[in-house]
Design brief:
With 795 residues, the protein is an alpha/beta fold. It has 35 helices and 13 strands.
């Protein structure tokens, strides 16, 4: 029998993996996967004997049990260092395993990976085969959190094989549960159910009923996602019975919360008005919240009260929903849990708006967005296999706030107050654009760019003939905010366009598809329709303020089309204005290119490599650029990633021109540029060029002359729009789709020739290049010249 101290320590260890991965996308998650806690049981049991001597380890356990993850991490990191100094390497590896758990719960998945890899190295040298298996299992779960499904499955499969060889039933059951979660995320539901079922049977056989219930709840979720709703409900009903035998604890309250979420999702799929299942969901939420409150687990109580409040909101019981939501907010504040606090502030804002309390609602929404800011990385990675995209899950928070602000501006008569409200609306959109790009790249490249941010009003004040246009796509209309220079100040103008988001999106997607059909003019009526919605309403401002350059901060599907191809019935938009796009003005470093210190690096491929077709005109394109600017050339076999890295470090070019295939995908991990020897991923691009972010003089221009994004893929277009930010470049020139590479070479060469004129901005240089190529009989169709976009700094 385990000693009291060992049992206490195990209780703390069970808290190490919370009942579900942090699911922050909406007030009712689509799915919650419970990760088993017993992977640490054996470690805890072995560590218990030395707990008397190692107070720091036990202090970390206590903090972790209370949800004080930063303090737990600090204690375990200190313990790991002490064990290392004392050459107690087995204990050091165990402390590092604990440390990784704290990092995991803080959302620091990459740091957790580093800690686990070091622990694995040490455990392998000892060797401690049981600990190695446990570490591999944890590496699998962290890889899953990072969205690395293949790595996660490989780690967990290896861990499971080792656990079976050790004949350790508890560890086998634990890893089976966690592997089942990965399989379910891949929609391999039959295999997932097999893993969960075996985990349940093993858990019951060894008396580990908590793990058995965990696997049963996960099996219910898997059945639900597969569409086996009756089987899912049967499993949930059984889980409700079995969870009652567990002692009152953090784990039990968390399992009840997961059951409540599963019942609620089941209700939505069966019949939203199914009050019996709604009552089962509400009962689980309430039991979870009340239990958590009794044991002072404020974190879980926050989720319980908040989700219960959402059920009341759906029933239209607004006053009661608001009271429960306020309890949830208070509990989140007590536990310092911003990842739940932002949800309940948002929920409070919705409820207050429903009561007609607009000003109070705006304050609640603002608190939610401010709370969300430091959580972007955690939100984007906390549940990588959610069924909602970032735009579907988190964007409503920002758009609902913008809608409230614009409604507030409608009733305002004081122009100064109106300008302040519109400024708040624009800043809210900038916050969203930044968060959206952060979600796509999932790293700190956005923060590095924000460090150089310049206020949009300061930018516009210094550029008399430039307007910055923010299209805001709301469900029932489109709002256009335009920043223009008015005397000695910047001023915001506003136009409302009566077109639904759905209607605009449909028209934009048709236009994108037809623009790529270079043998017909079917695109024209659609180009005219989008012009009517997007440009016509603001034409009088553009004329009044003598605008020559338009900088768009495109929203959603508008990122997927080249705005220069819009048509007023007489001519294309590019014939009227120089154009540029940016993912956000806050991410723009508005400095003109230093033409006296241009240093060009040209790289490219003419040969067919890695299954991609040859680009025969690349050689003449690069030769033309070399004639204009000189610089280093790396062509075909010279275009090797290691050599490119050396060149970037040693020569530090101000312009990097890459004439090779590039594919932008909805997921950054699948986006790449093609080198001769391998694919240049976005992370590797960050390593190669990202050092420019910290140089006094950054990369002025990155050109990608053979890009393509999938038609209709807003996320892929977002990646293209954010490539300059990712690379630490002030500007990027890239194409939405791949075009005849002879046309590409001619347009690109003309752009660089125009860029030599110090009186021209990059936007005007690109405009002139497009106007010139349009005169060629073969290239008049916008499918040839329009896809090239100037991104970020247009000066």
């Amino acid at each position: 029998m385990l000693s009291y101290k060992t049992d206490l320590l195990m209780g703390h260890c069970y808290r190490a993996l919370s009942f579900f991965r942090k699911r922050l996308w909406s007030s009712i998650p689509i799915c919650v996967l419970i990760f088993s806690t017993s992977i640490l049981v054996n470690v805890c049991a072995e560590a218990a004997e030395s707990t008397d001597q190692d107070d720091v380890m036990e202090l970390g356990q206590w903090h972790f049990a209370q949800g004080h993850f930063p303090q737990a991490a600090q204690a375990w990191e200190q313990a790991a260092r002490r064990f290392e100094a004392e050459k107690r390497f087995d204990e050091q590896a165990q402390a590092l395993l604990y440390f990784s758990e704290a990092l995991y719960h803080l959302g620091h998945y990459r740091r957790a990976t580093v800690s686990l890899q070091l622990a694995h190295q040490i455990a392998s040298e000892v060797p401690n085969f049981l600990l190695i298996s446990q570490i591999l299992g944890r590496l699998g779960n962290v890889a899953f959190a990072l969205g690395l499904e293949t790595d996660a499955e490989e780690y967990l499969t290896t861990a499971l094989s080792r656990a079976r060889a050790l004949e350790n039933s508890a560890l086998i059951a634990t890893i089976l549960n966690d592997r089942g979660n990965v399989l379910a995320s891949q929609k391999r539901y039959s295999e997932a159910l097999g893993a969960f079922t075996e985990s349940t049977v093993l858990g019951d056989a060894i008396g580990h009923h908590s793990l058995a219930v965990t696997a049963l709840i996960n099996a219910a979720w898997s059945s639900l996602l597969e569409g086996q709703l009756t089987a899912s409900k049967d499993r949930l009903d059984l889980a409700v019975v079995q969870v009652t035998v567990l002692e009152e604890s953090h784990e039990k309250s968390q399992k009840l919360l997961s059951i409540g979420l599963a019942y609620d999702r089941l209700r939505q799929l069966l019949q939203p008005t199914n009050f019996k299942i709604m009552r089962q969901s509400a009962a689980a939420f309430q039991s979870s919240a009340e239990m958590a409150h009794r044991i002072k687990d404020h974190r879980t109580a926050s989720y319980g009260w908040g989700h219960l409040g959402h059920l009341y909101e759906e029933e239209g019981r607004i006053p009661e929903a608001l009271e429960l939501t306020r309890r949830a907010i208070h509990a989140a504040q007590q536990s310092v849990t911003p990842q739940s606090l932002y949800q309940w502030e948002w929920q409070a804002g919705r409820l207050l708006r429903g009561q007609g309390k607009r000003d109070e609602a705006i304050l609640a929404y603002r608190r939610a967005t401010y709370t969300l800011q430091p959580l972007r990385n955690e939100v984007s990675q906390g549940f990588p296999h959610h069924s909602k995209t970032f735009r579907e899950g988190v964007s409503p928070l920002f758009y609902e706030l913008v809608d409230l602000l614009l409604t507030q501006a409608d009733g305002e008569t004081d122009e100064l107050v109106t300008q302040d409200i519109l400024g708040n609306a624009r800043r809210t959109m900038e916050q969203f654009k930044t968060a959206e790009l952060q979600d796509y790249f999932r790293d700190n490249c956005v923060e590095a760019s924000l460090a150089k941010k310049t206020n949009v009003d300061e930018i516009v004040k210094g550029l008399k003939h430039t307007a910055v246009v923010y299209p805001i796509l709301l469900p029932d209309r489109m709002e256009l905010l335009i920043s223009v220079h008015d005397g000695d100040k910047a001023e915001l103008k506003r136009e409302r366009v009566q077109v639904t988001s759905e209607m605009l999106s449909k028209e934009v997607r048709i236009l994108r598809r037809l623009l790529e059909k270079r043998t017909s003019r079917e695109y024209l009526p659609h180009a005219q329709q989008v012009y009517t919605w997007l440009i016509q309403p603001i034409r009088h401002y553009l004329q009044e303020y003598e605008i020559h350059t338009l900088v768009f901060v495109p929203d959603g599907p508008l990122r997927t089309i080249p705005l220069g191809a819009l048509h007023d019935g007489k001519e294309f938009l590019i014939s009227q204005y120089a154009l540029a796009i940016t993912p956000g003005i806050d991410l723009t470093d508005p400095q003109p290119i230093n033409r006296e210190k241009i240093k060009l690096l040209s790289v490219g491929l003419t040969d067919s490599v890695q299954g991609f077709p040859s680009l025969p005109n690349v050689a003449s394109e690069i030769q033309a650029l070399n004639d204009l600017y000189g610089g280093r050339v790396m062509l075909n076999q010279q275009f090797l990633l290691d050599d490119l890295e050396d060149e970037m470090k040693d020569d530090r070019p101000s312009i990097v021109h890459i004439a090779s295939h590039a594919k932008f995908d909805g997921e950054a991990k699948n986006t790449f540029l093609l080198a001769f020897d391998e694919k240049l991923t976005m992370d590797r691009l960050d390593e190669l060029i990202g050092l420019y972010q910290f140089r006094e003089t950054p990369l002025d221009l990155l050109t990608l002359s053979a890009c393509e994004t999938a038609a209709g893929d807003d996320r892929a277009a977002l990646g293209l729009a954010g490539v300059a930010v990712k690379a630490g470049a002030r500007s990027a020139l890239a194409s939405l789709w791949f075009i005849n590479d002879k046309a590409t070479s001619e347009l690109i060469t003309e752009f660089y020739r125009q860029l030599q004129d110090e009186n021209l901005s990059k936007a005007v240089a690109l405009q002139n290049a497009k106007l010139k190529i349009m005169q060629h009989p073969t290239y008049q169709h916008p499918g040839y010249w329009s896809p090239f976009l100037l991104i970020n700094n247009w000066l």
